[in-house]
Write a structure and sequence with these properties.
Elements: H1 2-16, E1 35-41, H2 46-49, H3 56-64, E2 66-72, H4 78-87, H5 108-114, E3 119-123, E4 135-136, E5 139-140, E6 157-159, E7 175-179, H6 191-209, E8 214-220, E9 230-237, E10 243-245, E11 249-250, H7 251-261
Helix pairs in contact: 3-6, 4-7
């Protein structure tokens, strides 16, 4: 009797699939890049960047990659957004006060290192590698989340001067966070100033990434304070399928997507986020 039932079930599968039993559907996955570079700009809403003549380079990037038309920051002001993207939680931070120090808290940098991978944060205008001060010139620690976590080594906290040129992109860590200074991130200077910086400092990597199994993520910490907190977010890289994507994403979505790419267990609020799986080819 059991044998007859099995034969009948197989016959049903063959009938439904046109003569060949179809394999089970495979879940969509995030491909594993050799390198991810994530760059965070400041305090501009989606509509201030998207289609703006002041941001020709960022809009050019969007035409080359995946533009997320429903991307949102987590909160206001700046600092808790950086912490959220790096650790899956704002860690209770609600302002930009400095310093912030977290003991033993899970974060992406520690996850990567524990998995035998590598992480570095590159901060423009930071006076020296390993610096823990709150400010120096146009540098602000509030835009440097990794220095707040005691389990991220000082060697992972470096100046942007250490970011390699085009001949050295293959030496980048698995994941890099890049923080422009207070002018070039559009906080204190114009959108066009930040857009020009992005073209001059990032385009060579963006073009290299498209042929070297790598990824550039450009996003913003928050909008200009208007309702909704919608921000401009673009992914560019070899496995990206260019186009517009309308799913709702946040900083936690980006963290979850990076974690899935490297086989890391999602931390904090990233565990409840759905990774981006439709933008890959």
């Amino acid at each position: 009797m059991l044998r007859k039932r099995a034969i009948a079930a197989l016959a049903g599968l063959i009938a439904v699939s046109g003569g060949i039993a179809a394999p089970p559907a495979q879940a969509a996955v995030v491909p594993r890049p050799d390198h991810v570079v994530l760059v965070m700009f400041e305090n501009k809403g989606y509509s201030q960047i998207n289609g703006s003549s002041s941001a020709p380079y960022l809009n050019s990037l969007a035409s080359q990659g995946a533009k997320f038309t429903q991307s949102f920051a987590v909160t206001h002001p700046s600092q808790p957004n950086y912490i959220a993207l790096f650790s899956g939680s704002t860690q209770g931070v609600t302002d930009d006060s400095c310093p912030r120090n977290f003991t033993g808290k899970a974060n992406l940098g520690r996850q990567l290192i524990d998995a035998g991978l590598s992480f570095k944060g590159y901060s423009e205008s930071m006076p020296s590698d390993g610096y823990t001060g709150c400010s120096s010139g146009a540098y602000r620690r509030k835009h440097n989340a990794w220095v707040d976590f005691d389990n991220v080594p000082a060697a992972s906290n470096v100046t942007f001067a250490a970011f390699p040129g085009s001949s050295g992109y293959s030496t980048l860590p698995a994941v890099s966070f890049v923080t422009p200074n207070m002018c070039n991130d559009m906080h204190d200077c114009s959108i066009n100033t930040g857009d020009t910086w992005a073209r001059n400092k990032l385009d060579a990597y963006a073009q290299w990434a498209k042929t070297h199994n790598s990824l550039l993520i450009v996003t913003f910490d928050e909008n200009d304070g208007s309702s909704g907190n919608q921000i401009f977010t673009v992914f560019v890289g070899q496995h990206i399928k260019p186009g517009g994507y309308s799913e709702n994403i946040t900083h936690y979505t980006i963290l979850r997507t990076i974690e899935d790419a490297y086989g890391l267990a999602p931390i904090g609020n990233a565990a409840g986020a759905t990774p981006i799986t439709d933008a890959w080819q």
